[in-house]
Structure formats: C-alpha cells, structure tokens
Amino acid sequence: MGTDPITLADMLRVAGDPDFERWQEQIRRTGGCSSPIHLEGWTLTKDRATGQTLYSYSTQNEPGGRLRVACGNRRASRCPSCAWTYAGDTYHLIRAGITGDERKGVDPSVRSHPRVFATLTAPSFGPVHNRPVSGRCRCGAAHADDDPALGTALDPESYDYAGAVLWNNHAGQLWQRFTIYLRREIAKRAGLSQRAMGEQCRVSFGKVAEFQKRGAVHFHAVVRLDGPDGPDTAPPPWASLTLLDDAIRSAAARVALSLPAAGRFPARTLKWGTQVDVQPIGGFTEGDVTEETVAAYVAKYATKAAETTGTVDRRIGELRELDRIPDLPDHTRRLIEACWELDAAYPDRLLAHWSHMLGFRGHFSTKSRRYSTTLGALRQVRADYRARQERQARGFAEDLDDAAEGSTLVLAHWVYAGHGHTPGESLLAESIARDIRLNREIVREVRADMADQEAWEVCA
Fold it and tell me: Which InterPro entries match (predicted)?
C-alpha cells in the first residue's frame, strides 16, 4: 500500500527543512521513538566560585524550538523503539543478578550461588482449547500454534470469568505472600528461626509477569540464595538447590487469599495453580537452563502486556467502547465485561479501571532490593553518556562529571510542549528506527561470530 498524498507532502516538507539534519539527530538520540516528548527551555551550569558558565543549552535553536526526548513507554505495542531499550535494560538487570557484573554492583561470585528459574501459574477457571502432548484438544481438533481458538473457553457459559479477573487483580498480593512463605519454608528446612535465617541467608529475586493466551497472569522469576549481606557474600553451606526447589513448591502451595462475598458474588479463596515449575540455572554450556536464555526470556515478556490476548493497550472509559473495538475475541470481551460487572462489588480493586489489563494491576517487572542493579541506574548511565556527547559536540571540553561536588550551580527551566510526530515525521522516524535496529542486529551477529571464533581457537 502506497503512502497517502498528505503524509507524503508532510514528509517532503520535513526533509526540505533547513533543520532536517538536526531533527534526524534528535530522533536518532531517542532511538527512533514513535511518540517523543517535546520540551522547551534552557539549562545553565556555572562555577559557584567564579560565576563562569561551564555549559549552556537552549531549545531556541532546535527544530521548531523544541527538544525531543524518548517517551520511555515499555509497551512494544505503543513504541517498539523504547520497548526495545526497556527490554535491553531488563535483560542486563536480570543477567547481572545471574552471572554477576561488577560494573553493575554485583559480584561475579553469584554464579556459584543456588539459582533457579521458577514459574508460578494461575489455577484453572474452566477447560480451554489447548495443544496437549497427545496432540488433540478436548474439542477433538489438533490446533495449530497460531490458532485464535487457543486459550479460549471450551464452554463460555460455565467458564469462571469472575474468578479469572479477580485472580489477576490480586496476583501481586499472591506473589507478596509467596515471598513471605518462601522465607519461612527456607528457615524451616534449615532448622532455624526466621530471624536466625535472615542472619545467615538472604533470598533475592527478579521476576516478570506474562499473560497466558487464556488471559490469566503467571510469573517467571529468577530466585537466588545469597549470604546475609546480599550477592557479595556467600550463602551458608545448608543453602542448596534442592532446598530452594522444595521451599518454592511448598511456599506456593501454602499461599491462600480469602475474598469475602460481595453482592451476588460468592466468597472465594485465591491460590496459585498446581503447575509450579522450578529449574536450576546453569552456565552457558551446562545446567537445565542457561543464564543467557533466562535473561532473554524475562526481557522478552517485560515489554508485553494483555494485548497478547487480543485486548487493547489503553484504558477503557466505558463498557460500550467494546462495541467500537474491531476483532475483539469473545473470550477477551467476556473477561473485560467481568471486570465491569465486579467493579461495584469490589470498589477498592478498581477493576473497571484495569479492565483493559483483564483486572491485573501489578507491575510487570519487579525485583528484590539486593537482586542486582536498578532500571533507574541503567537509565542514568545512558543519560550521562548522552549528556557528555552533547557537551563535546557543542564545544564544552571540560567534563562536568569530574567537577567537585557542590562546586557547580545548575539553573534550568523546562516546560512540556507536546508529544508525537506529524504524519511525515512519523514515517521518517520509522525509517530511522529500522536503521537503528538493523545496525544493532549486525553488531550482535558480528560479536557472536567473534565469540564463536574465540571459542574455536581455544578448543584448537
């Protein structure tokens, strides 16, 4: 399909602008963001003692008088470029907690700590179309991988849609209770009180939420046992993979959250599903699950949400909006409708507000305090690097990062001036984003080839 005349005309306007090169540079610095934030303002950095201006910047000379910065949206459905960056940060955060990385504050000795990749799932809310080992679903069909029927209810009239969205809505609390019980189970198996266990061992984790095709959330987590001060200290001799595996399964089985009856909805008890998977994490060439695979798997789902079930990636203001959503699967529609039906009965749960997420209101990616670095720290490293690039490009040779603390004074004024692209800008930004992705893929392939070559030379 060709470009419409209006978009084409706008693209030619942007490309013909005298500031086009600077506009391209701004978009490249955002990574090809689909909907950048526009800022107007200025900043000055002065030497406190002399009053000398060490650095100055104003958006007056920028294209349109604006600075464009990345939106930072983690959803791939909203901004593929920013989601790619978020996934990369999540990958490095998770991987640092598995392999160690001194640049990120995690000692490499964590590779010798007990580490597992655990998956906790939701219980059954009714039979759904699936692809069992036998190859044939209960309906008698052998579904293909991309069959839209997968995950949908075999009998929608008997499926517990209310239970499904209430479970999603409380999944974060179920995880919190799981972490509490996990520490108790570990202490029990070590023959220690919880206080004594805390003095010898710390439980660290990094997790991500994933929506199954049936619309239920489940969690993937890296769980690690450290010494009392975190990854820099060795775990006690009794901390083993077997103990950790057993404690995770027992803790998951113990978790129960009781919901009182509300209106016409009966009381119920929310629990984890019986399918709890725990796999030890080995090195790159050993163990059931490699470090690289785990980090990549977690990062993959950090940028996905309930859209994988066919729902929308925005809030639904009123229930009748569903009639204006094309190709909305019936199973997903029923889950959204259940959120609205339950909203008045459980007003504190904001189910209608989170109906586009099928009731889920938790964070998709979380970690314990001492698992590894933070996303904020990774973003700050990137921001500092970009700032140094900008200062050098503008002729400010002095590296302000080396200035003594308190020796400089920063004055700034910034205002929000809009967001997004015009149709022509959007088309050009997509081209820039594709080029960036292509360059990254080339670099990745080259590095992989170099690693293979080094391994071959070592073996030879």
Answer: RepSA (IPR046828), RepSA_streptomyces (IPR048241)
